[in-house]
């Protein structure tokens, strides 16, 4: 079995083909590999008889040349071929006639060893052509002004995907550390907190901050940590036992079992949500306050006698968790807040990325960790990318950002083509900002142009995985670094299938949530793509029977509002995943495509 290789310049040609011809090209490459392709055709009157053409479909052909093999100038039966270009048949034949197999390839466009990068205005050219990890630190002078301004209190930066929020957060943390080093040279303690949602993002921030702050005495002033680790470290400092954390799904499973045994009319999920989204979110300690409270965002109405029953049940279940030493994440933040209130703040400044997903208890903890004052909280987020259930009104938590906000409208990562394709996924519903105002993406646009996303329909899973493998190979052969490619699916079993397929083809993979720098294609769930960025992103399993997942629909239990909320969350998740790509987005499905990408809202 021999594979048809491609020249480094090929991707440039390839990205200009229509999606249909692209797919036919990949099919032909696979047919060659499995020996199912009709023979390569010789070209009449060719300047070099070693040049061949291959039919891609009735109208298009590819031009191939044998791979050079030292000491064997003549093509042999077992020659390996390399695909140089795909063109309309007549043009391909004309091109093949004049081509010599051993001359450097000129496909008509300027020959480039690099795969195509998006194009943009001249001022962005050098950033786009820089290695990807250097590009990830780029900022515009206007954005620098935001990072270096002096604010009388908390400030909020919002903007759609790729508008530079994370990079602004990074530069802001670096700026605060430098100011702090100048103002307090004797006091070298950590004074700036840079926090985000998950560990992979925190690690990426820490790595990039190392580059921005090479001086260890300045870098040492910034603590980069997830919001959960911060809570854990505060609590752990007061106890000899490390808190054992339990996630929401696992907690719901356990509570469901006890609720059924107790003969209660509430599901485990309902009780956990009620505890996290109402009781902990509002910081309610006493039953009368719970009976009086407004349960905004909750679907099912609860009469006072039911609230009493819920309260009593939750109290018992939380008591049992305490005996086991188990903690839920928002609960741990509430405990950390209590401890910080007694011990006093830890930092002078905090910079918060992915702020839209923090729970109210985590905001209270941040408030307790950083005293109110100038330049205290720098809050960066996008309400359109909220993938958690957490809804936050900063004002209700005593954090006032009024008059100190910036909205970023220009994307420097997502091309206009990917934006145009991805925006309809979100639907038309406005998101509610943390400042209690409706947040729209009006005016959001990109300065970059690139190829349109490719959507591929497959007959079955095997075909979908094979097509994915082909596509990743094209990216790799075109010179994209494996670590700059991400492949994701909605469920863990899809992810396992992806990893298996790529590994079987000799492509090394590493988990998306991993923090290492391995030269491997990143593979994981859509959730794990959050906040990250890649040159090329492939999403598979975007099929109607998988997305939105049945479990999410069933959990709504026929309640229309809950169902809309669940579907909206799936929309957001897919939108976030699609907008991680800078250079190329590939989406595939089996059978009908997901209604999230086909339904017009
Ligand atoms: N002015 C600029 N010129 C060139 N590149 C830029 C500019 N501003 C930001 N970038 C680059 O664009 C990319 C996207 O920025 P960033 O990740 O900060 O966006 P974001 O708003 O946090 O995105 P998301 O919300 O999708 O996570 C970064 O790699 C960044 O270096």
UniProtKB/TrEMBL annotation:
Keywords: ATP-binding, Helicase, Hydrolase, Isomerase, Nucleotide-binding. Gene3D superfamilies: P-loop containing nucleotide triphosphate hydrolases. The keyword Hydrolase applies. GO terms for biological process: recombinational repair. Its EC number is 5.6.2.4. InterPro entries: DNA_helicase_UvrD-like_C, DNA_helicase_UvrD/REP, P-loop_NTPase, UvrD-like_ATP-bd. ATP binds at residues 159-166. GO terms for molecular function: 3'-5' DNA helicase activity; ATP binding; DNA binding; hydrolase activity. It catalyses: ATP + H2O = ADP + phosphate + H(+); Couples ATP hydrolysis with the unwinding of duplex DNA by translocating in the 3'-5' direction. Pfam families: UvrD-helicase, UvrD_C. Residues 138-415 form the UvrD-like helicase ATP-binding domain. It comes from the Bacteria. This is DNA 3'-5' helicase. The lineage of its organism: Bacteria, Bacillati, Actinomycetota, Actinomycetes, Streptosporangiales.
């Amino acid at each position: 079995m021999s594979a048809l290789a491609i020249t480094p310049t090929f991707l440039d040609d390839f990205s200009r083909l229509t999606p249909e011809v692209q797919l036919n090209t990949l099919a032909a490459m696979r047919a060659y590999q499995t020996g199912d392709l009709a023979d390569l055709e010789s070209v009449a009157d060719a300047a070099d008889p070693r040049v061949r053409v291959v039919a891609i479909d009735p109208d298009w052909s590819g031009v191939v040349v044998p791979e050079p093999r030292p000491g064997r100038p003549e093509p042999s039966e077992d020659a390996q071929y390399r695909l140089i270009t795909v063109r309309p048949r007549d043009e391909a034949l004309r091109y093949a006639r004049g081509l010599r197999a051993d001359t450097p390839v000129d496909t008509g466009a300027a020959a480039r060893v690099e795969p195509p990068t998006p194009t943009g205005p001249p001022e962005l050219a050098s950033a786009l052509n820089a290695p990807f990890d250097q590009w990830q630190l780029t900022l515009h002078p206007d954005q620098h002004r935001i990072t270096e301004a002096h604010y009388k209190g908390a400030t909020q930066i919002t903007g759609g995907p790729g508008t530079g929020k994370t990079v602004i957060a990074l530069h802001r943390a670096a700026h605060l550390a430098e100011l702090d080093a100048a103002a307090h040279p004797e006091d070298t303690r950590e004074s700036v907190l840079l926090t985000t949602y998950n560990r992979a993002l925190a690690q990426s921030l820490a790595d990039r901050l190392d580059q921005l702050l090479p001086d260890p005495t300045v870098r040492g002033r910034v603590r980069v940590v997830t919001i959960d680790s911060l809570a854990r470290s505060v609590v752990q400092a007061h106890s000899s036992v490390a808190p054992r954390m339990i996630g929401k799904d696992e907690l719901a499973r356990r509570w469901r079992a006890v609720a059924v045994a107790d003969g209660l009319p509430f599901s485990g999920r309902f009780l956990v949500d009620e505890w996290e989204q109402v009781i902990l979110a509002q910081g309610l300690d006493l039953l009368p306050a719970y009976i009086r409270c407004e349960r905004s965002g909750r679907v099912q109405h609860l009469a006072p006698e039911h609230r009493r029953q819920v309260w009593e049940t939750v109290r018992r279940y939380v008591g049992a968790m305490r005996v086991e030493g188990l903690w839920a994440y928002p609960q741990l933040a509430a405990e950390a807040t209590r401890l910080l209130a007694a011990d006093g703040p830890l930092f002078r400044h905090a910079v918060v990325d992915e702020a839209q997903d923090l729970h109210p208890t985590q905001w209270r903890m941040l408030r307790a960790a950083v005293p109110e004052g100038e330049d205290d909280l720098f809050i960066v987020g996008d309400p359109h990318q909220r993938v958690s259930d957490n809804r936050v009104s900063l004002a209700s938590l005593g954090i006032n950002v009024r008059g100190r906000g910036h909205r970023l409208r220009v994307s420097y990562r997502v091309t206009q083509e990917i934006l145009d394709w991805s925006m309809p996924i979100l639907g038309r519903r406005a998101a509610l900002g943390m400042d209690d105002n409706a947040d729209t993406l009006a005016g959001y646009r990109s300065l970059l142009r690139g190829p349109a996303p490719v959507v591929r329909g497959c007959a079955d899973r095997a075909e979908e995985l094979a097509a994915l493998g082909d596509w990743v190979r094209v990216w790799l052969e075109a010179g994209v670094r494996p670590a700059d490619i991400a492949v994701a699916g909605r469920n863990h079993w899809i992810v396992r299938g992806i990893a298996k397929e790529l590994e079987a083809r000799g492509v090394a993979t590493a988990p998306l949530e991993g923090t290492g720098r391995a030269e491997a294609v990143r593979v994981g769930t859509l959730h794990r793509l959050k906040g990250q960025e890649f040159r090329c992103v492939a999403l598979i399993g975007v099929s109607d029977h998988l997305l939105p997942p049945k479990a999410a629909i069933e959990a709504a239990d026929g309640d229309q509002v809950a169902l809309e909320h669940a579907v909206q969350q799936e929309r957001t998740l897919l939108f976030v995943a699609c907008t991680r790509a800078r250079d190329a987005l590939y989406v595939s499905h089996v059978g009908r495509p997901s209604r999230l990408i086909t339904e017009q809202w």
